[in-house]
Design a protein that fits this description.
By secondary structure, the protein is of the alpha/beta class. The chain folds into three domains: 83 residues, Arc Repressor Mutant, subunit A (Orthogonal Bundle), CATH 1.10.10; 96 residues, D-Maltodextrin-Binding Protein, domain 2, CATH 3.40.190.10; 104 residues, Periplasmic binding protein-like II (D-Maltodextrin-Binding Protein, domain 2), CATH 3.40.190. The protein is 43% helix and 26% strand. The strands form three sheets. Strands 3, 4, 5, 6, 7, 10, 11 and 12 form an eight-stranded mixed β-sheet that branches. Strand 8, helix 8 and strand 9 form a beta-alpha-beta unit.
Amino acid sequence: MHIDHLKIFVTVVELKHFSKAAKVLNLSQPNVSLHIRNLESELDTTLFIRSPKQVKVTAAGEMFYIKARQILSLYEEAKQEIADQQHIVQGTIKIGASFTIGEYILPRILAEYAKEHPKVNVEVMVGNTEEVMEKTRTNELDISLVEGEIDQEVEAVSFMDDEMIIIASSHHPLALISVATPELLQNQVWILRESGSGTRAYSNQLIQHLELKMKRSFVFSSSQGIKEAVSAGLGIAMISRLTVRKELELGELKEIAIANQRFTRKLSIIKGKHDFISRAHDLFIEKILNMKKS
């Protein structure tokens, strides 16, 4: 029995899908199926009931899944202990990040981390908060950095406060007002992120809280798209200050402050439900949490 067989089996069980498992493992779907058939032949049992619509784990498969997770955990733990004896931090970590964090925070952190731990391979997936959280739940990602509200199903630790601001083009009428009132935000054209985005969720909360009526709205799937749309005069938007620091300094965009209002959200670390967390994972999390002190 090969460790690769166990990894493939566990991934299929957790994703409940051969094709999705193949994508995550960077294998072809026929290759995944072949590994599972070989494993079933070796164990002389059926691990999955296959149908066109779903993959169901058999009773034998459920039992073997528990043992396979334990074997893989012990294997990774043994590898890490050997590496620790040699004072080497190695392995692979799969990191997810929402767009704001992935584009404006994570690159700098990874550059420092990679320099400190050259033997650690890092795979990064950037998506909206909803996508990243789902992939963390299914263990496709080891660690994820997300913004806004966190699903109670996952363990989360806050590592940073992120200030949200309203922006407009330097030529927008609101750009001439030093401090705006909620009334001045009525019947404006809003530029929004897509559903599932942490920024979109926060924008929706603000609009509901201030009971604002939108004249019209446009939806973009990236912060860069929002910045370009606002700069072109298409409308106003709520966005993380992190994403527009340069544009504000250059005067390309203007912040619309609201009297007696400051908007912040939490940026958090969430972890997949792995039986074994390597030293590489721990050191990456430690680096993120140390951002509070720097």
